[in-house]
Write a structure and sequence with these properties.
Strand order of the largest sheet: 4-5-6-9-8-7
Shape: elongated
Structural class: alpha+beta
Distance between the termini: 40 Å
Number of strands: 10
CATH topology of the largest domain: Chorismate lyase
Largest sheet: 6 strands, antiparallel
Helix content: 25-40%
Number of domains: 2
GO molecular function: DNA binding; DNA-binding transcription factor activity
Strand content: 25-35%
CATH class of the largest domain: Alpha Beta
Keywords: DNA-binding, Transcription, Transcription regulation
Protein name: GntR family transcriptional regulator
Length: 240
Amino acid sequence: MIDKDSPIPIYYQLEELIRTQIENEALQPGDLIPSERELAEQYNISRMTVRQAITNLVNEGLLVRKKGKGTFVAERKIEQPLSKLRGFSEDMRSLGMVSETKLLEFKEVPAPLKVSRELRIERGDLVWQISRLRLADGSPMAYEVSYLSKPLIHGLTEEIVQGSLYEYIEQELKLKIERAIQILEPSVAFKQESQLLAIKEKAPVLLMRRTTYLSDGRPFEYVKSVYRGDRYKFVIEMYR
C-alpha cells in the first residue's frame, strides 16, 4: 500500500507496487493495467503522481503505452549472458523459445575496408554477406549483417544460412569456434531497422559488433547486429 507519511516519494512507492506485481507475475506480459484515473482513485493520490510513476516504468521498459488502448505490461526481456559464445538459434533454444530466421540477402561481395581488417584479408577479396532478421516465438528480435571468409567457410547455401551457422561450421566443416571480441553500445533504430524490427524509428536499440575466431586463431566472421532495446538485455558475470 501507499504510505503517505513515508519519506519515500509517493510516485516511487507506486512504481514499486506495480514492479512487484510484474515480478511476482500477478501482472503478465500483455495485461492491461488500470488507467491513471483508476489508480489515482484506488490509492487516493493525484493523477499527476500516477502519471510520473507510469512514465518511469515505461522508460524502464516494464510497461508500454498503446495509443487509444491504454498501458500494458511489456513483454519480458530476453537475458543473454556475455560469458558464452553462441549463435542466435542456440541462445533461443537454451531459453525454450522457437527461433526463426528470415533471409533478407545472401551474396558474395568484395570485402569493405573494415571487414578486410577484421578478417585479415585483402580489401576487395570476396566474402559472404548475409543479412538476416532473427525472430523468437514469432517476434522480431534482431537484424544482423554478417561477413564470412569464403576460403574458410565454404559450401554455404540459402538453406544453411537460414539455420544455425555455428552448428554448420562445427558439425559439417569440423572447425572449432573458440572465442570472439564483441563490442556493445547503445544506439537508435534507423528507418530500415525500425521497419524490420517492428519498432518506432529512433527507438532505443543495442548495437553489437563481433569478430569471431577459430581455435587456430583465424578470424572467420565479422557481424553487426541490432537488437531491440525493449526485448533484450545482456548480462555480464564478473569476478574479482
